[in-house]
Amino acid sequence: MVKMSDPVSAPQTEQQVTLATADGWTLAGRLFLPDVEPILAIVLHGATGVPRDYYAKFAAWLAAARQAAVLIYDYRDCGQSARGSVRVARSDMGDWAVTDQAAALDWLADRFADLPLEVVGHSLGGMGLPFHERADRVRRLTTVATGPSHWTRHPMHYIGKAAAFWFVLGPVATLLLGYLPGRILGQGEDLPARAFWQWRRWCTTRGFYRRDWGRALPQPDLTRMTGEVRLIAVADDPMIPPPVVRDHAAFFPAATISHLVVKPQEVGVTAIGHLRLFSERCKAAWPLVAGV
To answer: Which UniProt key words apply to this protein (predicted)?
Structure first.
């Protein structure tokens, strides 16, 4: 088991902040500061349908562990950034990965202009950097359970569940209700219909989101990120298994790539899966994510 101290017990400051996107949205953020002057700024981009507050304890720990200013936030139409009913929401995955993630990165880069900048991305949170103009400011990108998924590339025991979700349950529920009931289907919070359909297109198409480049998504610049990219997989993650995480390296040809697979037994738990690595029950794994 990985051993660690508990620096989060040190006094800290938290601020509620707002982030303005290029297309006029206001996103609700939380900024965690260490009890001393920060030497680093880190933005954490969350996974699809996962509210920012899920990451709060990790962010507070990270602020103390790395003496960093750490920003978490909700994407538009999600959590504290929602404006109304999910039935009328029009946002999609591209809005979150491209526009909202860029807004958070830009805000942090402006607020801490003299500090090194890093990004931690969970699942969808690790996909947007090639689209961001300030990717060249990022010293390190750490992705957790991020990769170009396809419904046929899950472990055998999970393929039937994935096929049912993408081809039956997800489409039927979204057509009937006007949104994806994420809580019922085990995919996090409810999602706007546009987000589900785009997500489905990516996960049922070879090449994942490349199909949308220059169309629903801008053309990315894969050479912008020249720093360190740490690709972290979870051994028992059936949604984005380790081989798929390794394939994510193709989106960062100019970066220095490293790979890490976290095994549940190494951190003293029986299971982690796709979403639990940032939970307190997996706290022993947090130094691996932080790179400390």
So the answer is: Membrane, Plasmid, Transmembrane, Transmembrane helix
- Structural domain contains residue 139: yes
Which runs of consecutive H residues, i.e. helices, occur in the chain?
A: 56-65, 93-94, 101-111, 156-164, 170-177, 182-185, 193-203, 242-247, 286-290
In degrees and rounded to multiples of 5, residue 196 shows phi and psi of -60, -45
Residue 23 is assigned to a structural domain of this protein? yes
Which structural domain, as residue segments, surrounds residue 131? 7-151+220-290
Asked whether residue 203 is assigned to any structural domain, the reply reads no
- Asked if 101 and 128 count as a contact pair (C-beta separation under 8 A), the reply is yes
The mean pLDDT value for 91-95 works out to 98
Q: State pTM to two decimals.
A: 0.94
Average pLDDT of span 100-107: 98
- Asked if residue 28 lies in contact with residue 73, where contact means CB atoms within 8 angstroms, the answer is yes
191-192 and 26-33 as β-strands: parallel, antiparallel, unpaired?
unpaired
Assigned domain for 236 exists = yes
Chain segment 246-256, per-residue pLDDT in tens: 999 999 999 99
Beta bridge partners of 105: none
Look at the chain and report how many structural domains it folds into.
Answer: 1
